[in-house]
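Q: I'm teaching a short session on how sequence maps to structure, and I want students to see two examples side by side rather than one. Could you give me a first protein with its sequence written out and its structure tokens following it? Keep the formatting plain so it prints cleanly on a handout.
A: Of course. Example one:
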Amino acid sequence: MRSVGPGRLLRLLGGGGLLLAVLAGAAFLPGSGRGRGRTDLPTVEVRLQPFVHRVPAEGNLKATRATAISVPPGVEGPLRIAWLAPEGALVRAGEPVIRFDPTDLTKSLRDAEDDLAKSRFKTAKERAESAAEVEKLAAAAKVAELELDAARRFQKKDETIFSRHERIESELDGSLAAVRERHAHEAQQVRGRLSKAELALLAIQGRQASFKIEQARQGLASLVVTAPHDGILVFRRDHRNTPARVGDSVWQGQPLADLPDRAQMEALVYVLEADAGGLAVGKPATVELESAPGTPYRARISRVDSLAKPRLRGSPVQYFAVVLALDHTDPERMKPGARVRAVLTLDEVPNALAVPRQAVFERGGRTVVYRRQGESFQPVPVALGPSGMGRVVIAAGLRAGDVVALEDPERGPAPAAPEGTPGAPKPPTPPRIASPAAPSLP
């Protein structure tokens, strides 16, 4: 068969040849969808291999059991801290750990003692005045009785001897004497009842003063808080992560410190919210003391906070608080509050198809990778599994031995630039994809 040269071919095709040439050129334009034929893309071969997702965390040790040291009960009003034992000090049972300022309680005691003395003085005065008044009223009643008796015995009743005016006057004198006698006895009884009421009121005031005295004495006796048993003193923190300090005002029953039991420790660590995918109770971890690096202790996640929170006020970075139960506690090395570093294993698949994150793209609402087929790359929908640091597991859509592109074939090659030219364009960056795993929180 005779060969046909290019010029003859163009003449044979006529105008159609020009159209084919344009279409052939358009196939290699960026964004045309035909850039999948590029062969200069970096690739990776998908292989079955173990996949382990580990995340770092840091925090502190704390005891699982601790005895709380609180402000003693029975003290009304605030107490001011005057002295504190050093945090972390090894204290023995009965040793003082907190002392409170006695100034306010001493003043309260003196005021109550003054009130009691005043109450007793008023009581004695009331009794003396009441006795004198009652005696005076008793004498008046006796005089009224004598007057009434005399009026009755010497009443002028004989009409032959006394005039009518004298008889009426004598009768009025008798009635008046009877009224005076009755009034004297009633006044005596009223004064007695008033005296009893006043004495009862003074007795109540005395009991109140005595109660305040007893309360102030108990408060003064409890101003020194001692350790209930041997242990290391650890002060509690408030919402600003600040422990109790000298000069702070505290209230009865408020916990200030703990004496932890060092026989069983746990670790409270913090995981970045961005690394929290897969956090769940029961996942394994290892813990190392900053003071003794190189000696890992096995642990498991025992609790995960349901909400991420910032560790510092005003910081936008959020963490999940995670409690790790240690398999073994070393009381000689482990102390409450000691800083630790932990590594949490969140996912572990013995045989997994994992690819770099930059090999996964979003196209039309679907997750795809570009698999090599011959001399081109074709989009393949995939299902994602757990992800780790820079890698993601392909749960479905690929097989071992497949070769996938690490750059987007749809974008085409980057425009060439002379070597060393300032501002030369860089290769396109693949779209960032979201982590497929979300925190599995309890």
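Q: Perfect. Now a second example for contrast.
A: Example two:
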Amino acid sequence: MMYHRQRSDTNQAEIVKELRAIGATVLVVSAREKWDLQVGFMGKNYMLEVKQPGSPLRPKQKEFHAQWRGQIDRVENLEDCLKIMED
């Protein structure tokens, strides 16, 4: 089976840089058709799917997010991340 690297949304690099600047650890997962970032912050872990503003989840992402029994969120910018991580 051949693996093709998924393209990351153009805002992903900036979000990663900003998260790291506030002290988060960030693993760029880009799990095929599932999520992009695994983030550790203040003792908690977060699964984040980075999308361009207004861009919807792809069908396989919608399916994965609907079936996942834990936390997973779609984000467009640092502010979205902070809202999720402050809860």
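Q: What should students look for in example two?
A: Point them to this: The two ends are 40 Å apart (CA to CA). Also worth mentioning: The chain has one domain: 12-86.
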